């Protein structure tokens, strides 16, 4: 009895289309204790979680300012933050290197976390992610073409092309892979696989473009200044506001399109609005930090585990968890290799892959 | 009382009729397979003729024949035997390996989309090669060794991570997609770190090209592919039964896990060998079996036909890549990628409609 309850609770929260086969294939895992569905988690706990996340974010921002290849005393870092002295080399390192990458990590992390939550909510798809669904590769192709053909060389110039590329890829992927999670991921992989040789075709012929592109493609928080962040933050703000406004509608969509429709929801409209917010958020994140995969995948799952299935709580949690994960990846990348740095995108992929594997091993996806 | 004999004779007659139908269907299928293979071989020969006679120094077809029989002058011999023939052989055998491995993957995992490109095996090979070129400064056959190791390692990790009370096709694919991202991000990191000229050489490797396969690498490729084909032929007897699903196959007495394991291992080895010499030639393993199944159309895994379509496809793509653009030769992997990905999208769009109906 308790087993079947747990199963029904878990399935309504994600509304997998094929409940019977999911249940049938999970004969062996019914015995596993599953946490009771998160909708029972009260707002009290959610507030505690949010406060803890906020504290963690402050800590990781502090770590991002204080840690790096050049070891600087925390007291000096604090002095640099409150009263910078242009003559002090340590202060300059903090202001010219660490503050920009921390700000960019914050913005890109917020954008990726919210984008992942939106994309998973609106497609009811546990494995949706801007990287897996090919949006990043669309943005990449657009950036390559704009470097190679138009000779744009500043990250400020990339932005609009990254937006356009992400939007085009999103349109293709959603129109072909609509609905089914695994199919969406495969369409994303196919779009990526089509775009990769196109990018290679340009790059093999044009060493100069390759030289610029490769530093962008690795996914890094360095190399962009605060000027780029100053231009891009309004897009993230708009995207974030839309995401928060849509949170309650996502709760209804989670019940299934039919239920949402019968409750007076315009599911198509919600999807379209969410799509625009998604392109804003993904395009900005990609323009800021390059194609970073798997952050958008992991954050919503972690948020759901912490605060339950109510998107009104998931959204703020994802807002905090996104930058926590991205900045943590960046800080780890600074420390893990002696006297060198591993870019945030690489570390994030390593943090995210085990989560994807865990999801793949879980019952819900295997039952599809 | 005459009706009493009927129940005895009628089943006998029915069995005889069924046997005739089966025999005629088998005959038709066999003829279709033979015709398919013959047409494929003719097409392959045509491509080979184009590839061997055109290029910077063009050799007329009759001179090609003369050279092949030892009548050519020194330049012709150099061009034909040292430059063009190895490239053609490489394309044919790489294509055959990808075609066969793809067919086995798709039959064993019962998923028309299972291919080393999606599963991350190719990306693993690329990572091994890029690391060897950029991280360790190696070149030549050693790079192939690293690519081989990369492909096998990724296959092993996928296997270990996707195994949970048997091998579920979709789980396999998802784990592979995740690993492809990890390998991809490491490749991007290695490329960003290296000196630009070297990085570009490594980038070229990740695209997949048959232009530089000769000598020892070519010999290794041919031997490996022949052995792989033979092993697959030996173990493929249960394949049509496997395609019915684990339960059916088990109830028919086929030991599914062992069979699947061996077949997949051979397929991974084929992919690893082909990738290690030529790089990950995109999508041949996905499209070749699909085309082959369509041509043969008898509900089987179409292994023999897949070998042929893979070889012809790769050779044709290489010819297109060499001569389609006037002043630029595209590596074969770019051509197959640009053909293959739209095909895969079309396949996805179609299966969706079917599953909805």
UniProtKB/TrEMBL annotation, chain A:
<keyword id="KW-1003">Cell membrane</keyword>
<feature type="region of interest" description="Disordered">
    <location>
        <begin position="1"/>
        <end position="37"/>
    </location>
</feature>
<comment type="similarity">
    <text>Belongs to the binding-protein-dependent transport system permease family. FecCD subfamily.</text>
</comment>
<dbReference type="Pfam" id="PF01032">
    <property type="entry name" value="FecCD"/>
</dbReference>
<feature type="transmembrane region" description="Helical">
    <location>
        <begin position="344"/>
        <end position="362"/>
    </location>
</feature>
<dbReference type="InterPro" id="IPR000522">
    <property type="entry name" value="ABC_transptr_permease_BtuC"/>
</dbReference>
<feature type="transmembrane region" description="Helical">
    <location>
        <begin position="46"/>
        <end position="69"/>
    </location>
</feature>
<feature type="transmembrane region" description="Helical">
    <location>
        <begin position="311"/>
        <end position="332"/>
    </location>
</feature>
<keyword id="KW-0812">Transmembrane</keyword>
<keyword id="KW-0472">Membrane</keyword>
<feature type="compositionally biased region" description="Polar residues">
    <location>
        <begin position="1"/>
        <end position="14"/>
    </location>
</feature>
<feature type="transmembrane region" description="Helical">
    <location>
        <begin position="131"/>
        <end position="152"/>
    </location>
</feature>
<keyword id="KW-1133">Transmembrane helix</keyword>
<feature type="compositionally biased region" description="Low complexity">
    <location>
        <begin position="19"/>
        <end position="31"/>
    </location>
</feature>
<feature type="transmembrane region" description="Helical">
    <location>
        <begin position="273"/>
        <end position="299"/>
    </location>
</feature>
<feature type="transmembrane region" description="Helical">
    <location>
        <begin position="184"/>
        <end position="204"/>
    </location>
</feature>
<keyword id="KW-0813">Transport</keyword>
<dbReference type="InterPro" id="IPR037294">
    <property type="entry name" value="ABC_BtuC-like"/>
</dbReference>
<protein>
    <submittedName>
        <fullName>Iron chelate uptake ABC transporter family permease subunit</fullName>
    </submittedName>
</protein>
<feature type="transmembrane region" description="Helical">
    <location>
        <begin position="231"/>
        <end position="252"/>
    </location>
</feature>
<feature type="transmembrane region" description="Helical">
    <location>
        <begin position="158"/>
        <end position="177"/>
    </location>
</feature>
<feature type="transmembrane region" description="Helical">
    <location>
        <begin position="102"/>
        <end position="119"/>
    </location>
</feature>
From TrEMBL, chain B:
<dbReference type="InterPro" id="IPR037294">
    <property type="entry name" value="ABC_BtuC-like"/>
</dbReference>
<feature type="transmembrane region" description="Helical">
    <location>
        <begin position="88"/>
        <end position="109"/>
    </location>
</feature>
<keyword id="KW-0472">Membrane</keyword>
<feature type="transmembrane region" description="Helical">
    <location>
        <begin position="262"/>
        <end position="288"/>
    </location>
</feature>
<feature type="transmembrane region" description="Helical">
    <location>
        <begin position="330"/>
        <end position="349"/>
    </location>
</feature>
<keyword id="KW-1133">Transmembrane helix</keyword>
<keyword id="KW-0812">Transmembrane</keyword>
<dbReference type="InterPro" id="IPR000522">
    <property type="entry name" value="ABC_transptr_permease_BtuC"/>
</dbReference>
<comment type="similarity">
    <text>Belongs to the binding-protein-dependent transport system permease family. FecCD subfamily.</text>
</comment>
<feature type="transmembrane region" description="Helical">
    <location>
        <begin position="169"/>
        <end position="192"/>
    </location>
</feature>
<feature type="transmembrane region" description="Helical">
    <location>
        <begin position="130"/>
        <end position="163"/>
    </location>
</feature>
<keyword id="KW-1003">Cell membrane</keyword>
<feature type="transmembrane region" description="Helical">
    <location>
        <begin position="300"/>
        <end position="324"/>
    </location>
</feature>
<protein>
    <submittedName>
        <fullName>Iron chelate uptake ABC transporter family permease subunit</fullName>
    </submittedName>
</protein>
<feature type="transmembrane region" description="Helical">
    <location>
        <begin position="218"/>
        <end position="242"/>
    </location>
</feature>
<keyword id="KW-0813">Transport</keyword>
<dbReference type="Pfam" id="PF01032">
    <property type="entry name" value="FecCD"/>
</dbReference>
<feature type="transmembrane region" description="Helical">
    <location>
        <begin position="33"/>
        <end position="52"/>
    </location>
</feature>
């Amino acid at each position: 009895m308790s087993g079947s309850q747990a199963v029904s609770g878990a399935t309504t929260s994600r509304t997998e289309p094929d409940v019977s086969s999911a249940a049938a294939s999970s004969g062996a895992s019914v015995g596993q204790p599953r946490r009771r569905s998160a909708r029972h988690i009260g707002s009290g706990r959610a507030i505690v979680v949010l406060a803890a996340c906020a504290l963690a974010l402050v800590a990781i921002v502090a770590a991002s300012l204080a840690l790096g290849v050049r070891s600087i005393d925390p007291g000096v870092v604090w002095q640099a933050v409150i009263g910078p002295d242009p003559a002090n080399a340590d202060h300059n390192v903090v202001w010219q290197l660490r503050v920009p990458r921390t700000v960019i990590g914050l913005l890109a992390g917020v954008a990726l976390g919210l984008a992942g939550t939106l994309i998973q909510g609106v497609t009811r798809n546990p494995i949706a992610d801007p990287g897996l669904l090919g949006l990043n590769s669309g943005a990449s192709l657009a950036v390559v073409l704009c470097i190679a053909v138009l000779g744009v060389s500043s990250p400020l110039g990339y932005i609009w092309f990254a937006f356009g590329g992400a939007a085009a890829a999103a349109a293709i992927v959603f129109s072909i892979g609509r609905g089914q999670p695994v199919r969406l991921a495969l369409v994303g992989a196919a779009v990526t696989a089509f775009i990769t040789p196109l990018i290679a075709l340009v790059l093999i012929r044009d060493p100069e473009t390759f030289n610029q592109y490769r530093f962008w493609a690795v996914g890094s928080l360095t190399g962009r200044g605060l000027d780029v962040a100053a231009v891009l933050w309004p897009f993230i703000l708009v995207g974030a506001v839309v995401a928060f406004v849509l949170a309650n509608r996502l709760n209804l969509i989670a019940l299934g399109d039919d239920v949402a429709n019968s409750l007076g929801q315009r599911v198509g409209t919600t999807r379209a609005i969410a799509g625009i917010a998604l392109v804003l958020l993904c395009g900005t994140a990609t323009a800021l930090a390059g194609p970073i995969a798997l952050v958008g995948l992991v954050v919503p799952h972690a948020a759901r585990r912490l605060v339950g299935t109510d998107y009104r709580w998931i959204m703020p949690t994802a807002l905090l968890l996104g930058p926590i994960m991205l900045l943590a990846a960046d800080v780890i990348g600074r420390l893990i290799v002696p006297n060198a740095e591993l870019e945030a995108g690489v570390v994030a992929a390593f943090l995210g892959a085990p989560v994807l594997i865990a999801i793949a091993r879980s019952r819900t996806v295997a039952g599809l | 009382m005459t009706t009493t004999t009927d129940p005895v004779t009628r089943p006998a007659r029915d069995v005889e009729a069924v046997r005739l139908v089966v025999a005629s269907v088998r005959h038709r299928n066999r003829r279709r397979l033979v015709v398919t293979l013959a047409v494929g071989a003719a097409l392959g020969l045509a491509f080979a003729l184009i590839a061997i006679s055109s290029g910077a120094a063009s050799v007329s077809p009759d001179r090609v024949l003369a050279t092949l029989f030892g009548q050519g002058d020194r330049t012709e011999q150099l061009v034909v035997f040292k430059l063009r023939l190895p490239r053609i052989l490489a394309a044919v055998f790489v294509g055959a390996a990808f075609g066969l491995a793809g067919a086995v993957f798709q039959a064993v995992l019962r998923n028309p989309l299972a291919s080393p490109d999606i599963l991350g095996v190719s990306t693993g090979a690329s990572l091994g090669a890029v690391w060897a070129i950029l991280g360790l400064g190696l070149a030549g056959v050693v790079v192939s060794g690293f690519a081989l190791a990369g492909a096998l390692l990724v296959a092993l990790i996928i296997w270990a991570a996707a195994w949970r009370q048997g091998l579920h096709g979709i789980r396999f694919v998802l784990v592979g997609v995740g690993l492809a991202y990890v390998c991809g991000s490491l490749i991007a990191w290695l490329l960003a770190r290296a000196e630009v000229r070297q990085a570009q050489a490594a980038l070229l490797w990740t695209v997949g090209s048959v232009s530089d396969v000769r000598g020892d690498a070519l010999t290794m490729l041919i031997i490996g592919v022949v052995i792989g084909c033979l092993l697959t032929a030996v173990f493929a007897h249960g394949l049509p039964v496997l395609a019915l699903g684990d339960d059916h196959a088990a109830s028919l007495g086929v030991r599914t896990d062992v069979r699947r394991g061996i077949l997949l291992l051979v397929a991974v080895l084929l992919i690893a060998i082909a990738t290690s010499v030529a790089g990950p030639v995109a999508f041949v393993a996905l499209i070749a079996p699909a085309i082959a199944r369509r041509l043969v159309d008898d509900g089987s895994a179409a292994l023999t036909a897949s070998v042929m379509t893979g070889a012809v496809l790769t050779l044709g793509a290489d010819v297109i890549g060499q001569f389609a653009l006037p002043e630029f030769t595209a590596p074969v992997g770019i051509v197959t990628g640009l053909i293959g990905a739209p095909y895969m999208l079309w396949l996805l769009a179609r299966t969706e409609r079917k599953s909805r109906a």
